[in-house]
């Protein structure tokens, strides 16, 4: 059905309704309606419109609808109103609800005589609907005035609300011109509450701000304010004078507004009172000063304690080193190595105390050097095995071969420190079973490995609540006064921080009554140095070995190591089974060349099993027997030697000690041996004839140093204090001076300054050799004029390396001077 729009009327008052009535009457008559009919429909529409416009505006659409044979005049009233259909029906032929897209309301229709859609009558009707009479102009004016009044009232309401909000806000909002005289343009009423000034005092005084800023702050704030015009914003903190003459700290935040052409227009800012924050900052700074003083006092105490402990430790480690050079028996060598290793561990404990202090101060650092993981594990085993032996525990290393395939880069001391701590805890809380140390690669890249190390035990385990208290300083799982196990809990806190510094994390899983697994990860670099070959030479590969051990975990780990070396390995879970495997292998003409026998097994122990194997008839090849035991007691070693066993391996077994043992038995020669190095790691001819002045007041330390130096063919003179050293240095020619720091009469620092005051001794190498191991001590030595620093307990390799560096440099310089002089 075709619809032709004649026009639209917007009604909001009585004048518009009257105009609509007049227009509908004229249009209806022009379209052929009788006067009476046109009057009725116009009146009905008018009555309906009056009712609607009392509460809301009304839009009226007038149009023609229908075909050439049947047409209607239609008026759409787009506003729903109760009872509208009743009023409209009084004058219109048909009334129906209007639902046309978004339009809702009523449609009233009246039949008219058919006309042609192009008839001039339509244009005439459209013109009538569109024209504006006086009534409509008056109504539009009234509507506009009403809108303006409403807008004004709304603006005044917003202003009142804004003023109320700004007055209640804890800041003062202000503005001023961004050019010319920079005159103030606005300030919120809150200025009186915060600063004591009336708004007029700010608005009427262009110099108000400059007169109130503290004189000491004004120049700096004005100098910084130029960035407001560069960046459009600025934040400053300064002191501001209040009305009563006192000063308060304010935070001043400013924003620059610009006009449409980008020219600065106005600056809008806010002042906030920050007295409370400034007072807190000052209190914090004062507390920081006190904390620094406390840290300095603690550092001084720790440095002194470190010195006092390191002095006797130098004797323990140094004399052990010298004793190892005296060609002791294998058993005594083992004891001395363990004494030396334990001394170094005690040294590690001292360092641990220093570490915790550094952790608190945020100054703990991690080394990044190449190292052999097996050496770290051997040290862990040496320190833990005796404790495990006392409780009858099996200590097992289970390390992925890929970890040992190359040298690693990282901090071996810290790595071992965490493992030793975890292992000590595992042994402490385990009464029977085993302790397993595992190593697994979690991620591998071209230049690094993310390795997870774990220590699992079969001990008492922990509850979730106990686990939650771990890894905090001075916290233990059991905090009761009747607790069975000692310890401070400091080790786990340090382990956590060390793991984080090595690019990893720590954690624990535990089940009460079943045991615990402590783990940590570490990001380790791949080293460039070649490891000793993990495989034997080709003529030794494929040889047959047998493992006899009742502990399945121990068998599995040892078997895995041997198979990685390309041996053919069989296992037996008891002495009886092992003897039978030896017998059957001989019958097949596939004899075992080496048999590893555990010492403690049920029914047949390792000694009896070994006897019976050696007594077997018809063995074409007598196997080499190696006792594997967690018990390093002298009676076990002696009995093994008497029974014809060729070697004894002390658990936990590392791949390198296993390799060395096999090579020794089969008379092969690896590229490196596992013996403790006690001879100098350089050609003695490089130090032969060197003359050194040793300045040391402690007799035992003198003995240790003299023993080390004389073994390197170095001539040694001794001075008991700094005063004697100064005199001897002036009277004799020395290649170097080894100087202790803490001595009676004259300390090392003062003695060094006195030596340096002599022009002839300006270039004499002076090397600090002291138990003061703090970084500040090294700086103090260098500042006094010393050339280098070696800390006690003395590491022989480090000592000779430093000595060679300075004595050879001095000799080179002397040679050059001689050549230039000639």
Keywords:
five-stranded antiparallel β-sheet, seven-stranded mixed β-sheet, 822 residues, alpha/beta, 26 helices, 46% helix, single chain
Q: What is this entry, summarized?
A:
By secondary structure, this protein is an alpha/beta fold. The chain is elongated and about 145 Å long.
Describe the structure.
This protein is α/β, with parallel strands linked by helices and 822 residues long. It contains 26 helices and 27 strands. Strands 11, 12, 13, 14, 15, 16 and 17 form a seven-stranded mixed beta sheet that branches. Helix 1 packs antiparallel against helix 4, helix 1 runs antiparallel to helix 5 and helix 13 packs parallel to helix 14. About 4% of the residues have low confidence.
What is the structural class?
Answer: alpha/beta
Shape: elongated
Helix content: 40-55%
Low-pLDDT runs of 5+ residues are: 474-488, 533-539, 668-679
What order do the helices and strands come in, and which of them pair?
Elements: E1 2-11, H1 14-30, H2 35-53, E2 58-66, E3 71-77, H3 84-88, E4 94-100, E5 103-112, H4 120-130, H5 134-168, E6 171-177, E7 184-187, H6 190-195, H7 199-203, H8 208-212, H9 215-224, H10 227-231, E8 233-241, E9 247-258, E10 264-273, H11 275-324, H12 330-361, E11 369-371, H13 373-390, E12 394-399, E13 408-410, H14 412-428, E14 434-444, E15 448-457, H15 464-468, H16 490-501, E16 506-511, E17 515-526, E18 544-548, H17 552-564, E19 568-572, H18 575-587, E20 594-598, H19 606-614, E21 624-629, H20 634-642, E22 647-650, H21 655-665, E23 691-695, H22 699-711, E24 715-719, H23 722-731, E25 736-739, H24 748-756, E26 766-770, H25 775-784, E27 788-791, H26 796-821
Parallel strand pairs: 12-14, 18-19, 18-20, 20-21, 21-22, 23-24, 23-25, 25-26, 26-27
Antiparallel strand pairs: 1-2, 2-3, 3-5, 4-5, 6-7, 6-10, 8-9, 9-10, 11-13, 13-17, 14-15, 15-17, 16-17
């Amino acid at each position: 059905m075709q619809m032709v729009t004649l026009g639209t009327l917007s009604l909001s008052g009585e004048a518009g309704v009257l105009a609509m009535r007049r227009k509908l009457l004229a249009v209806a008559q022009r379209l052929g309606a009788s006067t009476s009919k046109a009057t009725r429909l116009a009146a009905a529409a008018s009555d309906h419109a009056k009712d609607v416009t009392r509460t809301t505006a009304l839009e009226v659409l007038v149009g023609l609808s229908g075909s050439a044979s049947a047409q209607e005049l239609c008026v759409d009233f787009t506003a729903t109103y109760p009872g509208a259909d009743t009023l409209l029906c009084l004058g219109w032929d048909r009334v129906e609800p209007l639902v046309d897209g978004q339009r809702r309301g009523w449609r009233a229709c009246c039949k008219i005589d058919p006309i042609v859609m192009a008839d001039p009558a339509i244009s005439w009707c459209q013109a009538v609907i569109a024209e504006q009479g006086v009534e409509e102009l008056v109504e539009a004016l009234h509507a506009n005035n009403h809108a303006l009044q409403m807008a004004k009232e709304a603006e005044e309401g917003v202003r009142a609300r804004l003023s109320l909000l700004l007055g209640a806000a804890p800041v003062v909002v202000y503005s001023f011109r961004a050019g010319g005289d920079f005159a103030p343009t606005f300030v919120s009423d809150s200025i009186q509450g915060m600063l004591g000034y009336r708004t007029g005092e700010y608005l009427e005084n262009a110099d108000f701000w400059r007169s109130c800023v503290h004189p000491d702050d004004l120049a700096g704030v004005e100098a910084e304010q130029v960035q407001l015009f560069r960046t459009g914003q600025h934040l400053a903190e300064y002191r501001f004078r209040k009305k009563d003459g006192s000063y308060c700290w304010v935070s001043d935040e400013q924003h620059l507004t610009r006009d449409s052409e980008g020219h600065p227009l106005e600056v809008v800012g806010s002042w906030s009172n920050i007295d409370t924050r400034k007072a807190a900052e000052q209190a914090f700074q004062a507390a920081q000063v006190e904390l620094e003083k406390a840290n300095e006092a603690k550092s001084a105490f720790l440095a002194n304690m470190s010195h006092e402990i390191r002095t006797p430790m130098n004797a323990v480690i140094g004399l052990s080193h010298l004793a190892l050079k005296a060609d002791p028996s294998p058993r005594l060598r083992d004891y001395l190595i363990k004494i030396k290793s334990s001394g170094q561990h005690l040294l590690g404990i001292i360092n641990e105390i220093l570490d915790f202090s550094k952790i608190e101060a945020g100054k703990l650092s991690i080394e990044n050097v190449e190292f052999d993981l097996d050496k770290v594990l051997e040290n862990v085993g040496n320190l833990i095995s005796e404790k495990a032996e006392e409780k009858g525990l099996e200590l097992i290393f289970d390390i992925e071969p890929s970890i040992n395939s190359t040298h690693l880069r990282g901090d071996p001391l810290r790595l071992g420190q965490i493992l030793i701590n975890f292992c000590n805890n595992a042994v402490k809380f385990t009464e029977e079973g085993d302790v397993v140390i595992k190593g697994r690669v979690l991620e591998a890249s071209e230049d690094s490995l993310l390795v997870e190390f774990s220590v699992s035990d079969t001990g008492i385990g922990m509850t979730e609540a106990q686990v939650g208290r771990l890894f905090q300083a001075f916290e233990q799982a059991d905090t009761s006064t009747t607790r069975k196990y000692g310890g401070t809990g400091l080790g786990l806190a340090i382990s956590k921080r060390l793991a984080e510094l090595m690019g990893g994390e720590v954690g624990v899983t535990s089940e009460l009554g079943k045991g615990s697994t402590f783990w940590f990860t570490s990001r380790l670099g791949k080293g460039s140095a070649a490891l000793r070959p993990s495989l034997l030479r080709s003529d030794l590969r494929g040889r047959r070995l047998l493992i006899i051990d009742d502990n399945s975990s121990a068998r599995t780990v040892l078997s895995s190591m041997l198979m990685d070396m390309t041996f053919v390995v069989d296992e037996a879970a008891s002495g009886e089974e092992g003897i039978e495997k030896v017998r059957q292998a001989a019958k097949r003409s596939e004899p075992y060349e080496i048999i590893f026998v555990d010492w403690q097994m049920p029914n047949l122990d390792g000694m009896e099993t070994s006897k019976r194997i050696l007594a077997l008839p018809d063995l074409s090849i007598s196997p080499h027997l190696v006792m594997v035991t967690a018990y390093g007691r002298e009676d076990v070693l002696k009995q093994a030697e008497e029974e014809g066993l060729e070697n004894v391996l002390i658990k936990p077994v590392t791949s390198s000690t296993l390799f060395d043992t096999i090579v020794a038995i089969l008379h092969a020669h690896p590229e490196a041996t596992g013996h403790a190095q006690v001879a100098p790691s350089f050609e003695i001819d490089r130090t032969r004839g060197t003359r050194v002045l040793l300045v040391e007041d402690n007799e035992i330390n003198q003995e240790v140093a003299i023993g080390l130096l004389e073994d390197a063919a170095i001539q040694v003179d001794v001075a008991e204090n700094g005063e004697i050293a100064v005199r001897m240095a002036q009277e004799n020619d020395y290649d170097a001076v080894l100087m202790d720091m803490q001595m009676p009469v004259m300390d090392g620092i003062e003695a060094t300054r006195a030596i340096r005051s002599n022009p002839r001794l300006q270039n004499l190498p002076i090397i600090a050799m002291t138990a003061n191991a703090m970084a500040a001590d090294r700086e103090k030595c260098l500042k006094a004029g010393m050339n280098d620093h070696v800390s006690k307990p003395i590491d022989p390799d480090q000592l000779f390396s430093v000595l060679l560096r300075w004595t050879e440099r001095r000799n080179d310089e002397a040679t050059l001077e001689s050549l230039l002089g000639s």
